[in-house]
């Protein structure tokens, strides 16, 4: 089966100028050809009429908690929900993300390594969902951020063992929470938790196995240590301005995944039931977070979009809102689209396969109503999701 998608406009994810009146030919796998209107001769292909719509690559969300419930207090949910219930939630969240145009995600912390099973079920075609690059439970130090579901390890030897255990379990990426965080009670973001030699041990083992390392880091010391040890991405990355961390970020080419929306929603959530300690910490972090993001933009750092979906009020079907936050805080709409497509794919190690609309790539495509370059919120108006050349959602097209 072949399809000819007739796009009013194509934004291909490379950052190049949008192209009007373009046809995209794909089969149940890959993109076969891209050409001006009616220049591709294939009378057997089924036509998808999107003459007044915009076509983009499927979105890539680089920071997701696929089994969290996005309630006012997801920590409560994680601590009290039995794994089978959490798994059902994960199945529903994965479907919601796919229907919202997110065709690839990186899961950075899932109780009981449930994301590995979701990944495999989706890969086998048993359930609908984005392609998953999975970190499993992920690693922290004893009593560190997210300790109630992560693997706790201390000292380089235990870090090495924990990393090897996760590699044995079949993770695709190693996630560590280098510093404290917002949602974990009594764990301050300003406190650096991992020692440098502990991060080094993780990075050494992960890179040996060909896996990248994602580091949650929310203070300058944590960001510096993580980058000095060679991690591949800084998650959140607040307090980055006025430190050498920013120079390191640019020099190493590591990615920043700023997750701007998550802390905005938590900081605003006291009346909706977010625990007061989390609100207080999020408020304190907010200004540093957005200022850090702006300085990273000015410095030309690599940025990928990650929603932190699953945290308070950060539901999986609307992770595109992170792109809106990025624009609100200084990114151009085109740069935000690239962060949410090509850059995400590069960070996930899938840049050769997905992330842009180019001949030969896997046919992950979305069709949206409205022009996201004029109003980035148009990314929320997905009327058709195509994943691997299969139409997995169509709504009014
Ligand atoms: Zn997170």
How would you summarize this macromolecular structure in one to three sentences?
The protein is globular and about 65 Å long. Helices cover 34% and strands 23% of the residues.
Biggest beta-sheet profile: 7 strands, mixed
What low-confidence regions span 5 or more consecutive residues with pLDDT below 50?
none
Give the name of the CATH superfamily of the largest domain: Metal-dependent hydrolases
Under CATH at level 1, the class of the largest domain stands as Alpha Beta
Q: Largest beta sheet: what is the strand line-up?
A: 3-2-1-4-15-16-17
CATH architecture of the largest domain: Alpha-Beta Barrel
Q: Termini, distance in Å? A: 19 Å
- β-sheet strand percentage: 15-25%
What is the CATH topology of the largest domain? TIM Barrel
C-alpha-based Rg, rounded: 20 Å
Number of helices: 12
Q: Which structural class best describes the helix and strand composition? A: alpha/beta
Strand/helix succession: EEEEEHHEHEEEHEHEHEHEHHEHHHEEE
What's the count of strands? 17
Mean pLDDT: 95
Question: What would you call the shape?
Answer: globular
Task: Give every kind of bound small molecule, once each.
Answer: zinc ion
Structural domain tally? 2
- Could you estimate the helical fraction of the residues in percent? 25-40%
